[in-house]
Amino acid sequence: MGGGDGTVSTAAAVAIEAGLPLAVFPAGTLNHFAKDIGCNTVAKTVDAIRRGSVARVDLVRLYESQMVANTASIGAYPTFVQTREKLEKRVGKPLASFYAMLHTLRNDQPVRIRYDNKTVLTSLLFVGNSVYLPTGFAPSRRRRMDDGLIDVRILETGRRFAKTRILTALALGRLQRSPLYHEMQVPEFSFSAVDAPTVIARDGEVGDEYDHASFTAKYRILRVFRPLPGR
């Protein structure tokens, strides 16, 4: 298939059902999935097909009907990422992240969710397929895609002076230590929207509204053509 990350998750479901390996040609805007499996150019994908180089990678399933190849999110996380990526090549990722967070917090519409017997108000919730690097709220790459884990990151905005505390922590490079930041790597994750159903974005595409969502890591469920290590 040729397309972006949203197309990958749709094609992946078809490939799994057909029992066939998926060849991904990077033809979208960001192509995170293609890059993380080493197919960041058409030539590399073609070479992997010619060599019959196939590996297994994880996907995350939202209930039993929706696949997530890279990330799912609620709140303003997609806006945060788009703003950061527009700026980071010009001003660097730390400053771009700070500006994107400032922009997001100024214009956010927080969502109240409940998970693990806790209720929090959040503007940014990130759910990733496999563990992302770096830690904090600028995850951008994966070293491997077969660890059987879901990477969950939540930023609380419902506490006193939360926005100021978040921006200060981000500016000082200490967001990971903030009590407003929650990070976990787990095989399953679920949450409930307390006040009203909320939209869940998947792989850069706006999705449906849910009052409850359940994510499950599917270990090495998808076969993909990818270059041999070192190529």
Helix fraction? 25-40%
Give me the Rg, rounded: 18 Å
- The number of helical runs is 6
Average pLDDT for all residues: 88
Largest sheet: 11 strands, antiparallel
Question: Which structural class do the helices and strands define?
Answer: alpha+beta
Task: Report the count of strand segments.
Answer: 13
Morphology: globular
**SSE string, helices as H and strands as E:** EHEHHEEEHHEEEHEEEEE
Content of β-strand: 35-45%
Distance between the first and last residues' Cα: 22 Å
Low-pLDDT parts are none
Plain-language structure description:
- This protein has 231 residues and is of the alpha+beta class.
- The chain has helices at 5-18, 32-36, 42-51, 77-91, 93-106, 162-171; strands at residues 2-3, 25-26, 54-62, 66-68, 71-75, 111-115, 118-129, 150-156, 181-186, 188-193, 198-202, 205-210, 212-225.
- Helix 1 (5-18) links the parallel strand 1 (2-3) and strand 2.
List keywords for this structure.
about 230 residues; two-stranded parallel sheet; about 30% helix; alpha+beta
What's this entry about, in short?
With 231 residues, this protein is an alpha+beta fold. Helix content is 29%, strand content 35%. It has 6 helices and 13 strands.
Q: What is the element layout, followed by pairings?
A:
Layout: E1 2-3, H1 5-18, E2 25-26, H2 32-36, H3 42-51, E3 54-62, E4 66-68, E5 71-75, H4 77-91, H5 93-106, E6 111-115, E7 118-129, E8 150-156, H6 162-171, E9 181-186, E10 188-193, E11 198-202, E12 205-210, E13 212-225
Parallel strand pairs: 1-2
Antiparallel strand pairs: 3-4, 3-13, 5-7, 5-11, 6-7, 6-10, 7-8, 8-9, 10-13, 11-12
